[in-house]
Amino acid sequence: MIRLIALAVLLLLFAAPAHALRCKGRVIDDGDHAFQVRERCGEPYWVESWSEFVIAGEDAAIEQRIEVRTEAWYYNFGSDKLLRRLVFRNDRLVREDSLGYGYARLGTHCELDTLPPNATTGEVVARCGVPTDNTRRYGDVTERDTWGNAVRRAVRIEEWIYARDSRRPHLLRFVDGSLRGVERLDR
User: Fold this and answer.
1) Is residue 31 part of a domain?
2) Cβ-based neighbours of 54, under 8 Å, separated by 6 or more
3) Each residue of 87-104: pLDDT tens digit?
4) Which residues are within 8 A (CB) of 93 and not within 5 positions of it... i.e. 6 or more apart?
5) What is the pLDDT averaged over residues 9-20?
6) Would you say residue 8 has pLDDT above 80?
7) Exposure pattern of 106-126 as b/e (b: 16+ CB <10 Å)?
8) Contact at 8 Å (CB) between 135 and 156?
9) Which domain holds residue 172?
10) Number of structural domains the chain divides into
11) Taking residues 155-177, what's their average pLDDT?
């Protein structure tokens, strides 16, 4: 009896969490390569990408800059499943987020005036589709530690315009992929 209980505890420790993303019967885990996830789950409906630079030995005799590429992939598996955001750094999975329930069809649940604050770009695309127009610019933020290391990252500022139908166009502002404001524009 004790052996059975010990075996059950061990199995529970090594079992994947119930909320873990599974594609083609395989659990998607931190550390998986981007190509593995793409093979198992297919193409994401939306991808956002950015880079930051880690600077080792800033202001020292030798300074080294290392680019860290990051991508966020968004998956919609339907209205009875959760939207998923998978974050990759240098093509390795580092985080998985659940974003609420998905949609039977992307872009068909758009209420621009009532989008939740801090909605991600992928959530907005899932609700409203791809914007009519968009622009992107960058700022720069440097974060330093006390050992002469720094992380310099670009701050992404995006402005998306939705100008469909006869309704007034809307301008959406995102900072680092997170919705910061919605404004109605005149035609």
Assistant:
1) yes
2) 65, 66, 68, 149, 150, 151, 152
3) 999 999 999 999 989 999
4) 28, 29, 30, 31, 32, 33, 34, 37, 86, 87
5) 49
6) no
7) beeeeebeebeeebbbbbbbb
8) no
9) 18-184
10) 1
11) 90
Domain-embedded: residue 13: no
* Distance in angstroms (rounded) separating the CA atoms of residues 53 and 58: 12
pLDDT on residue 10:
46
Q: In the structure encoding, which two tokens stand for residue 9, read together? A: 């505890």
On whether the CB atoms of residues 68 and 92 are closer than 8 A, the answer is: no
Average pLDDT of the segment spanning 16-35 = 79
Q: Does some domain include residue 5? A: no
Q: What is the mean pLDDT of the chain?
A: 86
Residue 2, domain member (yes or no):
no
Task: Judge contact between 58 and 66, C-beta under 8 A.
Answer: no
Torsion, Cα of 15, 19, 22, 25 (10° steps): 50
